[in-house]
Design brief:
Helix content: over 70%
Shape: flat
CATH topology of the largest domain: MetI-like fold
CATH class of the largest domain: Mainly Alpha
Low-confidence stretches: 257-269, 306-310
Structural class: mainly alpha
CATH architecture of the largest domain: Orthogonal Bundle
Number of strands: 0
Strand content: under 5%
Distance between the termini: 40 Å
Order of helices and strands: HHHHHHHHHHHHHHHH
Number of helices: 16
Largest sheet: none
């Protein structure tokens, strides 16, 4: 038996030279693409903690120099920053929860043959993926229904998303029909079946939709620009965008003022426009990047559902 095990191990160790070459090439290619994806974030980060002068002159490439965290302190001093952060966090949490629930429930209902006029309603929802009235009609509609300058303008227009509904419907259809039939035989209604049977088995697609929705809500900018004029409802992205413009104006002022030396001396510890832009990028991107590790184990399974039929 021992000799047979040794032979099996040796057989496993032997690899075709072509396979070895392909493995090496694959590792090299994927390492290169990983570097291409990661390096921009690394480059921005090391520029935010390096000397602003060196960063502005493009001297920071691979390693930080004269490390400091003044840029993050300057960004934290932005007026109403915490209020804007709360608005962005609230719209992300509330919007994600409602969108995930609506997508899952409608996906489940559209998969039930007993739903009244199921095909017609489903086609009407799908049609909205291809037809859009445009920005002006959207603005007029939001203002007429009272969502202008309202927190709910961030939430309600995106609760029903056709793409997410299609994903959820496809996933629900892959669930064995015997599960729902057994629940109905035990007397469970539509809501009970959905909450007790469907939701526990479709967690991968729920996590996928949650990631997509959270990223979209966190990064959303145009709705604030078009539909909100109250400073207390400004999102983090919009507030930081305004500060970027202020930093650019300050930089232009330093360069165009005749007494630039004294003004620059008084602003010796102030961040430059370039450092502010990079710091803002890290501040905006970092929170949403933390979401991915939490849902990573569900993400691949959820997004790939329906790719293989059989």
């Amino acid at each position: 038996m021992a000799s047979e095990k040794v032979k099996v191990k040796k057989a496993h160790r032997k690899q075709d030279p072509v396979d070895i070459v392909m493995s090496v090439v694959t590792y090299i290619v994927y390492t290169f693409f990983a570097f291409v994806c990661v390096y921009p974030f690394y480059y921005i980060f090391i520029n935010t903690i390096s000397s602003n002068d060196l960063s502005g002159r493009g001297k920071i490439t691979f390693w930080p120099k004269e490390i400091h965290f003044t840029n993050y302190i300057n960004v934290s001093h932005i007026p109403s920053l915490m209020d804007a952060f709360k608005v962005s966090l609230s719209r992300t949490v509330v919007g994600t929860i409602l969108t995930v629930f609506a997508s899952a429930f409608l996906g489940y209902m559209f998969s039930r043959e007993t739903m009244w006029m199921r095909k017609i309603w489903y086609r009407l929802v799908i049609a909205t993926m291809y037809f859009n009235a445009g920005i002006i009609p959207f603005f007029i509609t939001m203002k007429n229904i009272g969502l202008y300058n309202s927190f709910w303008v961030y939430i309600l227009p995106t609760v029903v998303s056709p793409f997410y509904i299609v994903l959820c419907k496809t996933f629900v259809e892959s669930v064995p029909k015997e599960l729902t039939d057994a629940a109905e035989l035990d007397g469970a209604g539509t809501i009970r079946t959905f909450t007790s049977v469907i939701i526990p088995v479709i967690k991968p697609i729920l996590a996928t939709v949650a990631i997509f929705t959270a990223v979209a809500q966190w990064n959303s900018f145009q709705d604030t620009l078009l539909l909100v004029s109250e400073p207390k409802l400004f999102t983090l992205q919009f507030t930081l965008y305004q500060y970027i413009n202020q930093a650019s104006s300050l930089k232009a002022l330093v360069n165009s003022t005749g007494n630039a030396a004294s003004l620059a001396a008084s602003l010796a510890h102030a961040a430059t426009a370039t450092s502010i832009r990079m710091t803002v990028t890290i501040v905006v991107v970092a929170p949403i990047l933390l979401v991915y590790p939490i849902f990573q184990r569900y993400f691949v399974k959820g997004i790939m559902i329906g790719a293989v039929k059989g």
